[in-house]
Amino acid sequence: MTGQMFGSRIRLITQKKSFVSTPLLLALVVIACMAFRFSSQAQDDPAHAIMDLANQTRSEAGLQPLQWDQALAMAAQAHAERMAREGQLSHQYPEEPSLPERAASAGAHFSLIEENIAMADSPHRVHDSWMHSPDHHDNLMNSRINRIGVGAVRAHGYLFVVADYSQGVDAESFNQVETSVAHVLAAQGLRIKVDGTQDARAYCQSDEAAQARHIFARFLMRWQGPDVTQLPKPLQQRIASGVFHEAAVGACAPQGDGGSNQPVFSGNRVAVLLY
């Protein structure tokens, strides 16, 4: 009798499980698998795990996800390795290039760049520490950034992490830049003087005073930035005067400070000559 009752109880419990708890059990299995997968990823690839955590948080706040930028990642990894060697955190060590210089040297193109650094025992702890720090939180949740590169190194019992965020700028050839600006000028009624391209390129990259003496244009202007199709106001005013009928466009590598007293490491530089 006792054995029958025991058997019955087992059978009833089994029936109850199959009827009520199977969906819950399946859900728990899925969650466990996802947690294991993320845990494995965090161990094997903490850099991408940190990006995933950032994008999850940004998504919950209605912000666009960040795209992985390999050039930023290379710069971040190099700095993370330096932090691991030093055994302490710093955004810039003595005689080390600045963040914009490091990123540009790695091949990144950007109009805005920010950086978060941390030392913790896991990607979750890193992300959590940033979310509870106003400055780090603001960097990660900046609505203007759209790219990320992360470097991570395990050393001294910790995970040294560098996350570089940027507002990316697509790299364009000089011909592409010149074509884009020429379209803007043509839309304002100017004829593009193709045989003036070399003069415009020379003026773009040379000393202004010296080069201007050898160019027979009535107005010369050059500027640089992430979007050179936004014509400077002095140039717009000259075009609007109706005095000029032709224009030549030349592009070259960015240089100097771009007029903002800050080094320019990304974007484009262009010169326009008016005739």
UniProtKB/TrEMBL annotation:
Segments forming domain SCP: 52-165
Keyword Signal among record annotations: yes
Pfam families assigned to the protein according to its UniProt record, in alphabetical order: CAP
Signal peptide boundaries: 1-42
Annotated CDD domains: CAP_bacterial
Keywords, comma-separated and alphabetical: Signal
SUPFAM superfamilies membership: PR-1-like
UniProt KW Signal keyword: yes
Protein's name according to its UniProt entry: CAP domain-containing protein
Organism: Acidicapsa dinghuensis
InterPro entries on file: CAP_dom (IPR014044), CAP_sf (IPR035940)
